[in-house]
Write a sequence for this structure.
């Protein structure tokens, strides 16, 4: 196996492992799932200073009031 | 209500980085946002049976994939102008006179009228246009009914956005790959500009890749935000992407930077490709693209040597005169550099074997060869029609297990311009019934004037819609459509990848709004063919699709956010590629058999008409809108109150126009009104026209169409042969000649000055 083949082989295995882990983490039912969830959460966590997805519009969204939406839909406001 | 815009960083930290508490009276559902076609996994929160908030997923792999269009959805779908009951036209077409009817009465009449049209003109006289992310529960059922009834005339916005890319990728290696952003070392964005509120997951992946050291190359006439953070930015002339890639290939082949083993073992046509590429020395490419030779070479070297690299799908090459060659060149670059089906490169995933895929549901085998041969446009522009894709049936069965693979719904389409010409009476046979679902066809394809004429000549127009769009205003029936908050969804990535995701229903639809599944089921019944859609409910249908997993829909959706097929790489070593030769076809046998140049080429612009000295590009998304949608949402309109023309300071000066001034943009087809926004990031001589503008508050009906006749970019988009891709017949939207008319008595004087300056 030449170095290029070895690198591809290594990446293939690591990708398969990560997909398996993401799959277990997404199920989040058994203790193994939950362990994977914990690890994936830890790995994907970003320090607030480095978080390029911070956005006040999204992060401060409070949602809507159901009665207000209802009145809006009925054309009362 | 949405948060106020002023930014307090501490509030953000508090809101985002604390664990979410379960609030009493709030019901949460795991859903997939369908406010655009990206399909982000999100969570809805409902109170009193109504969704009151859409927030980011709790699943860390989907975290933060949410944008402004997603969070505003609860209010957007509660809009008082939403159509919530079936409407039947009672006045002249487009007169705006409607009466409320029941779904059952509507379909009884639709069935009688459609059968009469089919009896008189044949099943091919019935055409359908749809955009499947809006009509998520279609799942190929529309095609299934059409195939049984005998009509091949289905088209979609995907004809010029992703679906055509998928179909053309098959000509090179038999499938449409997806870039492995997690492992790649170099990303090439061709005119594409993912942002925080547009293409959010892609933006995230690119930023993450850059953070771990991946290179970014951007080719874009504009100095976009992606260009500004790129390692190399090539500010090419609009529409010259294909020439640029020929230049890259010239460098890569001349300097032997390609993967020689892969090229030797797994490609055909390398020598012919090399000969073609030799026609494009860098000096010529520099002239065609307007970029420096040295920078072109530097980018090509970076792509070939920093890899594995990816060229993610881009809509830019989907909408050009050289679209087929452009998409083929992307495929060829991936292949000869050894980036196909390897980690960090472009992965050929195939169907997920655990579910019944949509291509199977569509049942293309039941449509007879005789009817397939009648597909409009297949004679002149066959690339993504049944005729063009026929050569891939056997190889696809060999490699992917079934003959028909309708990737991103794009592989058996009717070219839209051919369809609308036939509807307008300029085709080989009449088309007299037109259905459109979750789609605003008048404004979604080129030559809006022709499409309006085509619609006015129909005997029956039926639409499934949420709002009174300009296209809906010309319908005979408007059936009220549900929204993504109000339906479940089994999402199979449109056949592009093998990943399956689920979306729970979050609330009941308002009034009589129903799903696309119910629309098609009722139509099958109205055509006396109930057996075509035998499932009682959408949930039954999903359970049928999941039978191989031994789970019902309820069991699956309750336990599954995402279902992956275990990844496999370099599968071609066992099966070959799904092409006629079984190899990567640098020279396409299928294109050659269809009578086209089997090698990529660059078709230059027609000579400039001095009356229209500027070039425009359209097809651009604004963050608050998706396609022609979202114009009814107050919060989005506040962000984008008017359509904006982006123009460079020098061009603005030449035309004597200033910021916020209303002007006209005119070409041979039409003129539209638009407001000026002067941007340093725009090159001289090129203007940007935003896509899909109309104003729901403006007067409806023929002659008005809620402002579409005043603002819509589709009026300027040409579909004459000079402006169509030869193989696909899709329009050139990236470099259409035009001029700016200043709205004053000095227009003629300014125009004369400009002509003089160009001469």
């Amino acid at each position: 196996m030449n170095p290029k083949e070895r690198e591809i082989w290594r990446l293939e295995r690591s990708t398969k492992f990560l997909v398996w882990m993401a799959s277990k983490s997404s199920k989040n039912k058994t203790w193994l799932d939950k362990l994977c969830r914990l690890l994936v959460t830890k790995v994907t966590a970003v320090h607030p200073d480095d978080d390029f997805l911070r956005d006040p519009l999204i992060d401060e969204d409070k949602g809507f009031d159901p009665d207000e939406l209802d009145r809006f839909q009925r054309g009362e406001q | 209500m949405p948060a106020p815009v002023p930014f307090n960083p501490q509030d953000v930290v508090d809101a985002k980085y604390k664990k979410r508490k379960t609030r009493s009276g709030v019901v949460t559902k795991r859903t997939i946002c369908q406010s655009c076609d990206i399909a982000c996994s999100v969570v809805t929160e409902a109170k009193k049976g109504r969704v009151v908030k859409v927030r980011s997923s709790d699943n860390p792999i989907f975290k933060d994939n949410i944008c402004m269009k997603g969070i505003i959805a609860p209010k957007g779908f509660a809009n008082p102008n939403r159509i919530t009951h079936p409407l039947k036209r009672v006045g002249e077409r487009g007169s705006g006179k409607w009466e409320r009817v029941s779904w059952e009465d509507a379909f009884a009449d639709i069935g009688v009228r459609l059968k009469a049209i089919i009896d008189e003109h044949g099943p091919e006289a019935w055409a359908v246009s749809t955009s499947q992310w809006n009509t998520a529960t279609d799942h190929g059922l529309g095609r299934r009914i059409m195939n049984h009834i005998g009509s091949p005339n289905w088209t979609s916005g995907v004809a010029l956005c992703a679906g055509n890319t998928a179909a053309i990728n098959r000509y090179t290696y038999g499938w449409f790959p997806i870039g492995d952003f997690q492992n790649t070392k170099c990303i090439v964005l061709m005119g594409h500009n993912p942002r925080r509120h547009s293409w959010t997951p892609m933006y995230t992946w690119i930023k993450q890749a850059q953070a771990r050291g991946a290179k970014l190359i951007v080719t874009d006439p504009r100095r976009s935000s992606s260009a500004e953070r790129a390692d190399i930015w090539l500010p090419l002339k609009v529409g010259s992407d294909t020439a640029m890639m020929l230049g890259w290939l010239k460098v890569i082949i001349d300097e032997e930077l390609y993967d020689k083993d892969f090229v030797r073992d797994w490609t055909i046509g390398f020598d012919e490709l090399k000969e073609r590429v030799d026609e494009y020395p860098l000096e010529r490419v520099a002239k065609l693209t307007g970029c420096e030779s040295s920078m072109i070479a530097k980018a090509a070297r970076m792509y070939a040597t920093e890899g594995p690299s990816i060229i993610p799908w881009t809509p830019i090459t989907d909408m050009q005169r050289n679209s087929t060659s452009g998409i083929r060149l992307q495929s060829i670059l991936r292949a000869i550099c050894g980036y196909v089906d390897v980690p960090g490169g472009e992965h050929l995933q195939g169907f997920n074997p655990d579910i019944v895929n949509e291509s199977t549901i569509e049942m293309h085998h039941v449509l007879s060869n005789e009817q397939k041969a009648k597909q409009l446009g297949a004679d002149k522009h066959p690339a993504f029609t049944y005729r063009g894709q026929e050569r891939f049936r056997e190889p696809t069965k060999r490699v992917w297990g079934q003959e028909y693979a309708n990737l991103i719904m794009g592989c058996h389409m009717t070219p839209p311009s051919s369809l609308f010409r036939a509807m307008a009476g300029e085709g080989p046979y009449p088309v007299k019934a037109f259905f459109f679902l979750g789609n605003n066809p008048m404004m979604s394809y080129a030559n809006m004037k022709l499409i309006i004429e085509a619609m006015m000549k129909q005997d029956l127009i039926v639409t499934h819609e949420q709002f009174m769009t300009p296209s809906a205003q010309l319908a005979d029936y408007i059936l009220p459509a549900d929204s993504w908050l109000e339906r479940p969804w089994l999402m199979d990535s449109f056949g592009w990848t093998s990943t399956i995701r689920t979306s729970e229903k979050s609330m009941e639809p308002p009034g009589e709004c129903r799903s696309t599944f119910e629309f098609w089921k009722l139509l099958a019944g109205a055509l006396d063919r109930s057996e075509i859609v035998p499932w009682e409910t959408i949930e039954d249908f999903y359970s049928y699709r999941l039978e191989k997993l031994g789970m019902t829909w309820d069991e699956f959706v309750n336990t599954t956010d995402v279902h992956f097929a275990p990844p496999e790489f370099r599968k071609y070593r066992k099966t070959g590629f799904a092409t006629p030769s079984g190899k990567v076809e640098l020279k396409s046998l299928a294109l050659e058999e269809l009578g086209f140049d089997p090698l990529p080429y660059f078709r230059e612009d027609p000579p400039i008409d001095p009356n229209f000295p500027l070039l425009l590009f359209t097809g651009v998304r604004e963050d608050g809108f998706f396609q022609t949608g979202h114009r009814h949402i107050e919060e989005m309109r506040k962000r984008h109150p008017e359509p904006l023309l982006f123009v460079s300071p020098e061009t603005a000066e030449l035309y004597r126009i200033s910021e916020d001034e209303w002007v006209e943009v005119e070409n041979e087809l039409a003129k539209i009104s638009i407001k000026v926004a002067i941007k340093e990031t725009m090159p001289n001589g090129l203007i940007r026209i935003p896509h899909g503008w109309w104003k729901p508050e403006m007067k409806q009906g023929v002659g008005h169409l809620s402002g579409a006749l005043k603002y819509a970019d589709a009026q300027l988009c040409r579909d004459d042969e000079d402006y169509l891709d030869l193989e696909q017949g899709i329009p050139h939207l990236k470099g259409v000649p035009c001029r700016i008319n200043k709205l004053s008595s000095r227009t003629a004087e300014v125009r004369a000055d400009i002509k003089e300056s160009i001469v």
In short: Chain B touches chain A through 61 residues (CB under 8 Å). The longest strand of chain B covers residues 734-742.
